[in-house]
Amino acid sequence: MNIGIIVYSQTGNTLHVAEKLKDRLIREGHSVNLEQITVVGGRTPKTKQFELATKPDAESYDAIVFGSAVEAFSLSEVLSRYLNTLGSLQGKRVACLVSQQFPYPSDGREPRHWTDEEALPIQRRVDLCYWRRQLGKVAA
Prior knowledge:
By secondary structure, the protein is of the alpha/beta class. The chain has a single domain (2-139), classed as Flavodoxin domain (Rossmann fold, 3-Layer(aba) Sandwich). The chain has four helices and seven strands. The protein has helices at residues 13-27, 77-85, 116-125, 128-139; strands at 2-7, 31-36, 38-39, 52-54, 63-71, 74-75, 93-100. β1 (2-7), α1 (13-27) and β2 form a beta-alpha-beta unit. α1 packs across α3.
């Protein structure tokens, strides 16, 4: 199956988890492409004034995983704006990959980035069995 993983990752943490998912799906025999949504000049959380620099084309995929961090208990404004640019996804399998966004701790420390060792339990929590069940329906 041709799967697109389309993510917005401000700090690289969501991208890191998406790369692990991509590797796993490739090992299971799928064709997988990982694409990033980017913003012109970067962006800080809660900023509503920004322009999308890249808008990956979702049309060519049989299944799509959209990924982003949660911002203030809501869908990331960047992913939300990107999704509004898409046409119909009718007939496509769609899944979501969501991570928590705490890039700017309130105590003034630098943004935290996950190591491979820290990402492994998160990857397990993504529940790869779920992905297999959802994506396997079309492949079967």
